[in-house]
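Dear Dr. L.,

I hope this message finds you well. Following up on our conversation about the binding site, I have prepared a predicted three-dimensional model of the protein together with pyridoxal-5'-phosphate. For your records, I am including the exact sequence and ligand specification that went into the calculation, followed by the structure tokens. Please feel free to forward this to your student if that is useful.
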Amino acid sequence: MPGGVSSPVRAFGSVRGDPPFAARGSAARIFDVDGCEYLDLLGSWGPLILGHAHPAVVEAVVRAARDGLSFGATCRAEVELAEQVLARFPFAGKLRFVSTGTEAVMSAIRLARGFTRRERILKFSGCYHGHSDSLLVKAGSGLATSGVATSAGVPAPLAALTDVLPLDDEAAVEELFARRGKEIAVVVVEPLPANAGLLIQREEFLRTLRRLTREHGALLVFDEVISGFRVAPGGMAQKLGIEPDIVTLGKILGGGMPVGAYLARDEIMQHVAPLGPVYQAGTLSGNPVAMAAGIATLRELERPGVYEMLESLGALFEARIARSLEQSGIPHALSRVGSVLGLWLQAPPAPRAFEKIDTSAAERYARLHPLLLAEGVWMAPSYFEVAFVSLAHTPADVELFGQRLDRALAKLQSTVP
Ligand SMILES: *Cc1c(COP(=O)(O)O)cnc(C)c1O
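The resulting structure of the complex is given below.
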């Protein structure tokens, strides 16, 4: 395996030290093969909103597995999960299951291009939408908005069809639409950008995207692979009351198993094969075991008070982290929506655009991370990520975490060059 990993950020390229070899997870804890225990604030990068190996999810998976691992035919569990999802996103009439968030967004982009018969994409710097060719693109230099590939192997002519603008900047979007609004098929955005720290957007910015796409005949994709089921049952679309044209889902949807989906109103979904000309398929899509994990997870999230619980746990973590950082004297700003926490090691205000991130703080985080790991705290091995609180966390975990953070920060201060 290149770098010893199946996904690059796991390789600790951005921090010091060696990655632990995961052996087992239970509720809010991970145990490595050396028997070390960690309090987990990463939750497998987002899916584990119920914590590790939740009994109801494990039970559902075991039961489904006994009946067969894959059919390549429609099964009852797909219908059940589809109904559960569509009930949470009432603007949508149909959905298609895929196996990853990458596939969901890649397919949503193809659908938007097929539906509008246009080719250009607008995305925003700091948002991540998976690793499909058209989306591994950053802004060109100078005033050029046309993108350049961030990965070798992405054809330049394809990257050039993607425009990249800063978040939090309505004027830039207005200007682009005035210039080439008729060519833009789709605007894709994380309504809660959580892949370069947590860059909370002003509602007005997202409403401007909604208005401009409508005015110019482009589609608006909310990539809710992280925020879907996390900030509210119906994601940011529900939380803000903004109706996008397509929503992409992943992570929590599979409850730890590989599931993604894209959904839209019927008029748009009619274009997906076999109903329409936009081709998209998957041998293991709608896999019955993965569907069972998703159904069980969403069922747990239907319990009354769940989102209030996530909010109050998130607030506890935020307050405790703020206390530690204040004591340490390290400049900091925290951003949080419910159970998603962004930790900025720079002076407030918390940034809302990638360009406002003080990237020199990444070096401080790179030195803090191994100290946290040694104390038994499992957080993302990169500054440009977020922390996820789960329903398996307890107020006692918050205090335990706080004490470990205090010790790690004290060591960091004592080793400042
Ligand atoms: C994780 C993520 C993806 C990609 O999902 P994978 O399952 O890793 O392919 C896409 N969009 C967003 C917003 C994500 O956070």
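In brief: The two ends are 35 Å apart (CA to CA).

With kind regards,
A. P.
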